[in-house]
Amino acid sequence: MTPIAGKPVVTAAEMRAAENCAIAAGTSADDLMERAGKGIAAAVHRLAAGAPVLVLCGPGNNGGDGYVAATALAAMGHDVRIAAMAEPSSDAAKHARAAWTGPIESIAEAKPAPVLLDALFGTGLSRGLDDTLSARLCELVNAARLAITVDLPSGVATDDGTVLSPVPDFEVTLTLGAVKPAHLLQPAARHCGAVRLIDIGIVADSAAHVLGRPNLPAPSPDSHKYNRGMVVIVGGPMRGAALLASTAAMRAGAGYVALLDGGAGGPHALVHRAFDDQPLDDDRIGALLIGPGLGRNEEAAARLDKALASDRPLIIDGDALHLLKDRLDRLRNRPAPAILTPHEGEFTALFGKLDGSKLDRARTAARQANAILVYKGADTVIAAPDGRARLARDGSDWLSTAGTGDVLAGTIAATLAADLDPLEAAAAGVWLHGEAARRLGASFIADDLANALTAVRASL
């Protein structure tokens, strides 16, 4: 049972391909099911603390995994019951069912247990559970003290996180072989609880990975304010947003932050300059951020034009994203990397309605813009034009307050200025931002979030 940070995220088709490769190399379907079931049993044994377990088995291989797990749990001394919805349909599941020596109940008549293991349906589900089965699953899960699901909660689509029928909340999801997009994409992710990986001995790789703890450079004896990372932020009439971004950049590790607003305020270490007094092609600039508090008038558009004309790494956020729609060709042809940080509304305004999952849409938009996309939301997807991606989960619901997006933009500016690969810089900024929110807990404001970055950055 392994944490999923940094692990590959595979689609249903990629998972089937990995399983087929393992079978072609000599591992039988029965062997894979045996490994999965025993891995599930070991995890449930650790979590159940000796309590009775009810296993719900479906007709496919997910149900077969449940039969193996139940047999192994019984051998460990657990009081285990199985409730099945139908006879097994695959050969491996039939063999697993035959190895179970206890009775099998109907799901309709099964009494609840302190621990519920859902092995009805896993990867590859294309339609929802019927109303009766869905309602019964919810009833049994809600009656349990601990609800665990095998691979995915029954009733969700693997690749896009769609909820196909009503799904209860599980405390733990035990994913088999690899992480799936639905573990990270909403609305399915909110039902998964803690996601842990069960190794079944197959190699499933992908260009998409779960967001993990970043490896950020610490200052050395030779460090100074410029090689620590100089961030320049182009301000506008809504000065609070740019001040939040500036504070975040400083507390996330930048060595020098200049805010081009001609004003005052913020930490004393923040340098204020008028927009026209700072050349935007200064070689010392490690990251140029435009958007927080920029506005959408002619002056804002002129400032965006100058930022696009610079040869410095660029982050485009907020109002600047709305102004970017008619300037995408200029963005694509810039010699320096760019990171865009849209939420759903900004994304749609810039790219229109794209097809596919949030991961698919982020990758398509990254290719169209020739830029890194940080597609924000309750689930955040970070995608590069070459198809690499990072998926974040466990975003704090308390981030739904004004200014937290400005804090994220400033945080990413600091990590980009540290001369990281742009995708890794964006991923590091998202991780720092999410970790700061996690540490704050509940009822914080954006100012708290920016200030909390100091301790998070110091912890790396």
Give a topology summary.
Layout: E1 2-3, H1 12-24, H2 29-48, E2 53-57, H3 61-75, E3 80-84, H4 91-99, E4 104-106, E5 115-119, H5 131-143, E6 146-150, E7 172-176, E8 194-198, E9 208-210, E10 230-234, H6 239-251, E11 256-260, E12 271-273, E13 285-290, H7 298-309, E14 314-316, H8 319-323, H9 328-332, E15 338-340, H10 344-351, H11 358-369, E16 372-375, E17 380-383, E18 389-392, H12 404-417, H13 422-440, H14 446-458
Parallel strand pairs: 2-3, 2-5, 3-4, 5-6, 6-7, 7-8, 9-18, 10-11, 10-13, 11-12, 13-14, 14-15, 15-16
Antiparallel strand pairs: 1-8, 16-17, 17-18
Helix pairs in contact: 2-3, 2-4, 3-4, 6-12, 6-14, 12-13, 12-14, 13-14
Structure explained in plain terms:
The protein has 460 residues and is α/β, with parallel strands linked by helices. It folds into 2 domains: 2-208, Rossmann fold; 230-458, UDP-N-acetylmuramoyl-L-alanine:D-glutamate ligase, CATH 3.40.1190. The chain has 14 helices and 18 strands. It has helices spanning 12-24, 29-48, 61-75, 91-99, 131-143, 239-251, 298-309, 319-323, 328-332, 344-351, 358-369, 404-417, 422-440, 446-458, and strands spanning 2-3, 53-57, 80-84, 104-106, 115-119, 146-150, 172-176, 194-198, 208-210, 230-234, 256-260, 271-273, 285-290, 314-316, 338-340, 372-375, 380-383, 389-392. It has a 10-stranded mixed sheet with strand order 9-18-17-16-15-14-13-10-11-12, sandwiched between helices. The relative contact order is 0.10. The model has no long low-confidence stretch (mean pLDDT 95).
